[in-house]
Each structure stands twice: as structure tokens, then as C-alpha cells.
Amino acid sequence: MDGAGGNEDYRAITVTRCSPRIGAEIGNIDLTRPLSELELAELKRAFTENLVLFFRDQKISFEDHVRLAEYFGTIGSHAGKKTHSKPSEDPRVRRFHFDETSVDGISGNAWHSDQSCAPIPPLGSILYMHTIPPNRGGDTVFVSMYAAYEALSDRMKSYLEGLTALHDGVLIFGDGTPRSEHPVVVRHPESGRKSLFVHGTAIRWLNGLPRDEGIAIARYLAEHARTPEFSFRFRWEPHSIAFWDNRCCHHYAINDYFPHVRSGYRVQIEGHAPPAPG
Ligand SMILES: [Fe+2]
Q1: Given 21, 94, 247, 251, the catalytic residue
Q2: φ, ψ dihedrals at 275, nearest 5°
């Protein structure tokens, strides 16, 4: 892909970069039917290169949704005990529906990667929205954790080497949810790039450091990762899809539409292995 966000080296699909560091909109593709080998190969390459892919005007069924996910891995289930999402008529698909009854909050309005508390966190998630709020709220912001890592000083990079963080699912999803220790810097299995794998939601400190120091550094990293230059803010339209790589990006679902309806479905793809140290 060239520096201006072009897609000259894609032959089947079109790939239009959304921002310098993260996100691309995929065109010339119909997700209501099986993909050709070339389309799939290009889609996988676009996913690795861009971290989160967006699709417009795709009226997909549960079957279409699951087929897209299964090109990338096995369908996963939620590690958390308490969640804001609900089951749908299909056990493989979760319903993400919020409206005037959602007085105790919505799913995802804090910086996070999905279920990092799991021993093997999900590879990614595919969220399809069929109904968006009429007040134009409900955007999702995605941030590149490659960019967050790469912007650290060399001193900070070597300081973080070998450290781990406890991802405490109980803090978010209640008793019975896993807690897992993952490296602070991880290496992506496909791109080979290093990224930060910490966020402010389920991590209180870093292991291997005195407690106060670990708390301060964890806070600093969480704040650093929110830098707008590492991010892209996606505006949903009816029948848009966002497919994010949970291993190298964080996201934040903006809760600015209550009491309007925002409604869709999500499928989660299981990770292939625990996060590898960077
Ligand atoms: Fe999420």
C-alpha cells in the first residue's frame, strides 16, 4: 500500500486507509456470499496491515457473520460472567442492543482490548450494526498499540522488557471470570511487530516492580495509549461492520446516545495462542 492510503497492490478488493496508523475501509466485496481465494488472501493481508477493517452497506445474516469470522479462526465465547451484551437466537452470535432501558451503562465505553483477562484473549471481534442512534452518537474509537509502543523512548522500551501485567477480569465481569498474566510488550504472530498490551480497565499494576512504581507506570502507559495521533474514530452507519485485531489495537465505544437505540450483533474469534513476549 502506498503512503497516501491507496490500494494499488490489491486486485480483488479495494483498501482505503482511514488514518496514517490504523483502520482501512474495504470495498468491492460482498460479505453475503463466500469469498474467493484471492479476496480472502487480500482481506487477511489488509487485516494484518491495518489492524481494523470497516465495511459499509453489508446486510449480513448470522450465517454470513459467522462465515466471515471462521475464515480467521474458531468462534469464541465471552470469558466474562456479567456482561452488557445478550445472547441472540444464534449461540455463536451476541446481541449488542442498547436503548432507553440501558440505564446501567453500555458495553465497552472504556479503553480496552476484548477480554484480555482470558489465558488466550480473542484474536478479534466482528461487530455489525444494523441500527444507529439518530443523534449521530455511538462512534467507536480505535487506537494502534503498535504506534503506542513505537512512540515510547528507547529507555522506556528497555525498562518494560520482560515485565508482565495481571489482567483482572473479576474487576470488570465479576466473580468467576479469569485473571491472566500477560507480557506488557507483545509480538504480533502475523506482522512480527511489537505492541503494548496493557490498558487502564483491568490492570492495576505491573508485576516485577515495586507496587507504587508499578501503579504509576501502568497509569502512564494507559494514558500514553490514548494519544489521538495513534487513533481513528469510526462513524457507524446502518449495516456497517468493524472487524478489529484485538492483539494490537484497543477500542472505546462512546456512550453519547442514551436513550436512543444502537443495535447490532458481534461474533468473537478465538485467539490461537497466549500473547508472546515482544
Ligand atoms: Fe470491546
Answers
A1: 251
A2: -55, 130
Q: How many helices (H) and strands (E) does the chain have?
A: 6, 17
Can 114 be counted among the known catalytic residues? yes
User: What does the pLDDT look like over 69-91, one tens digit per residue?
Assistant: 999 999 998 777 677 788 899 99
CA of 36 to the centre of ligand 1 (A): 29
The residues whose Cβ lies within 5 A of ligand 1, an ion, are: 108, 114
**Quick one: average pLDDT of 187-201?**
93
Alpha carbon of 113 to ligand 1 centroid (Å): 6
Is the overall model pTM greater than 0.85, yes or no? yes
Q: Kindly report whether the peptide bond that precedes residue 259 is cis, defined as omega within 30 degrees of 0.
A: yes
In the reported structure, the alpha carbon of residue 210 is separated from the centroid of ligand 1 by a whole-number distance in angstroms of: 30
Query: How, if at all, do strands 52-55 and 24-27 pair?
Result: parallel
Whole-Å CA distances, 257 to 103, 151, 239, 251: 12, 33, 18, 17
Whether 266 sits among the annotated catalytic residues: the reply is yes
Bridge partners (DSSP) listed for residue 167: 180
Is 251 annotated in the active site?
A: yes
199 classed as catalytic: no
Rg (CA), the chain: 18
Ligand 1 mean position, distance from CA 124 (Å): 10
